[in-house]
C-alpha cells in the first residue's frame, strides 16, 4: 500500500493548532510567533512534509540572524529538482547563520508588479529566485538593490543589463550532444517539443538542438516540432494526443525540453500504438523519477540539483559580502544518461 502523503492538517493535528496557523507558519506569514513557527517547521521536518522531506536539520528554524528570501512562482515541493536544490541551499546558508523564508509569487502579484504581502525588503539580506520567468517581475526584484541570484531565468534576459547573478544547469551542449549522438547513429528526421520562450534553460536546449541539426547539414522542420506556449502543455491530459493527431507527419526522434514533456508525449504515442524507440526515439531532460519509471525508460540528462543549491548559496553569500563585484552567469555541468527510449547509441 502506498504511503499517504503528509498534509498541513497532519502537522496541525500533531501540534494541536489550527491548519491556518500551521500554513502561515510554513509560509513565513508575519504575525506568527517565532516559537510557534519553529515548532511547525520542526514538525514538518520530522514528518517529512513536502519540501521539508529532503532536509536533515532544523536549520530553517529562526536564529534571529540574517534572512535569505526564496521567491518562486511554484511551491518548491512540486519539483524533484527544486526540493533537492533547496536542501543543498538551506544547509549551506544555515552554516553562515542565515534563515530561509519562502515566498510564493502569485499571478496577481506578477500582473500588478507587486511584492508578496509577507515579503519585507527591509529585513532581507539576499534573494534567491527559482522558476521565476516573468521578465518585468524579475526587473522589479533586481531593482530592489538587494543581492539576488536567479536559478534559471527569463528566456529574454539580456545579461549585460541584468543586475543579478544567474545560475543554470548546463543546457545547450547537453542537448547538442544528445541530438548529435542520434545523428551519428543514422537519425536525420527530428522534432523538438517544448516552449523555448518559457525560460532560459528551455531556450538553451532549443539552441543546442538547432546547432546539432545545422552542423550536420540538416534542416529543422518546425512542422514536426511542438513549440506551443508552455501553459498549453498543462491544459488537459488529452492535449498531447490532440497535438500529435494535428501533425501531418511525425519525425523519427523527438528531443524534449524536459522529462515531464517527454513522458506525456510518450504515453500519448503509445496509446496510438506507436512503438518507442522502434517508431520514434525520445530524449528528455532533468532525470526526474518518472524518467526511470516510464516504459521504456527515458534517455535524459541528469542535473546535479543538490550541488546547484550549494553553488547558488555560495554565489549569493559572495554577493552579500562584496556587492560591487561583476555579476556572474554560471553553468553546472550535467550528465547524459542513455536508456531504452533511444536505441543503443555507439
Describe this structure as you would to a colleague.
There is one protein chain. This protein is an alpha/beta fold and 346 residues long. It is built from eleven helices and eleven strands. The chain has helices at residues 8-15, 19-26, 34-47, 80-95, 107-112, 135-142, 172-184, 200-215, 239-245, 259-271, 305-321; strands at 66-72, 98-104, 126-130, 148-151, 165-169, 190-193, 253-256, 281-283, 300-302, 329-332, 335-337. The strands form three sheets. It has a six-stranded parallel sheet, covered by helices on one side. The longest helix is centred in the last third of the chain and has 17 residues, at 305-321. The chain is globular. The protein starts with 7 loop residues before the first helix and ends in a 9-residue tail after the last strand.
> Which strand order spans the largest sheet, edge to edge or round the barrel?
2-1-3-4-5-10
Q: Provide the gyration radius in Å.
A: 21 Å
Largest sheet properties: 6 strands, parallel
Overall spatial form: globular
Tell me the number of helical segments per DSSP (H or I, 4 or more residues long).
11
Amino acid at each position: 500500500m502506498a504511503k499517504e502523503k503528509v498534509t498541513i492538517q497532519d502537522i496541525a493535528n500533531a501540534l494541536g493548532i489550527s491548519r491556518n496557523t500551521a500554513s502561515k507558519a510554513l509560509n513565513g506569514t508575519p504575525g506568527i510567533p517565532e516559537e510557534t513557527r519553529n515548532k511547525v517547521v520542526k514538525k514538518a521536518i520530522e514528518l517529512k512534509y513536502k519540501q521539508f522531506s529532503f532536509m536533515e536539520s532544523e536549520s530553517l528554524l529562526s536564529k534571529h540572524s540574517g534572512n535569505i528570501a526564496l521567491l518562486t512562482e511554484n511551491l518548491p515541493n512540486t519539483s524533484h529538482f527544486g526540493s533537492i536544490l533547496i536542501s543543498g541551499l538551506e544547509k549551506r546558508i544555515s552554516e553562515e547563520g542565515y534563515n530561509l523564508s519562502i515566498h510564493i509569487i502569485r499571478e496577481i502579484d506578477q500582473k500588478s508588479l507587486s511584492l508578496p504581502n509577507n515579503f519585507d525588503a527591509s529585513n532581507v539580506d539576499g534573494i534567491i529566485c527559482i522558476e521565476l520567468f516573468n521578465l518585468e517581475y524579475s526587473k522589479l526584484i533586481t531593482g530592489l538593490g538587494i543581492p539576488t541570484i536567479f536559478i534559471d531565468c527569463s528566456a529574454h534576459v539580456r545579461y549585460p543589463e541584468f543586475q543579478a547573478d544567474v545560475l543554470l544547469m548546463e543546457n545547450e551542449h547537453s542537448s547538442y550532444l544528445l541530438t548529435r549522438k542520434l545523428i551519428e547513429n543514422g537519425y536525420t528526421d527530428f522534432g523538438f517539443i517544448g516552449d523555448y520562450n518559457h525560460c532560459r534553460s528551455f531556450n538553451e536546449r532549443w539552441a543546442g538542438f538547432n546547432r546539432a541539426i545545422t552542423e550536420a547539414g540538416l534542416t529543422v522542420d518546425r512542422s514536426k516540432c511542438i513549440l506551443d506556449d508552455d501553459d498549453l502543455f498543462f491544459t488537459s491530459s488529452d492535449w498531447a494526443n490532440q497535438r500529435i493527431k494535428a501533425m501531418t507527419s511525425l519525425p523519427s526522434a523527438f528531443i524534449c525540453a524536459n522529462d515531464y514533456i517527454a513522458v506525456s508525449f510518450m504515453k500519448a504515442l503509445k496509446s496510438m500504438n506507436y512503438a518507442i524507440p522502434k517508431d520514434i526515439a525520445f530524449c528528455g531532460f532533468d532525470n526526474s523519477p518518472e524518467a526511470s519509471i516510464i516504459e521504456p525508460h527515458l534517455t535524459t540528462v541528469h542535473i546535479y540539483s543538490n550541488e546547484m543549491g550549494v553553488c547558488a548559496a555560495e554565489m549569493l553569500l559572495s554577493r552579500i559580502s562584496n556587492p560591487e563585484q561583476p555579476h556572474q552567469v554560471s553553468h553546472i555541468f550535467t550528465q547524459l544518461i542513455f536508456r531504452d527510449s533511444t536505441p543503443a547509441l555507439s
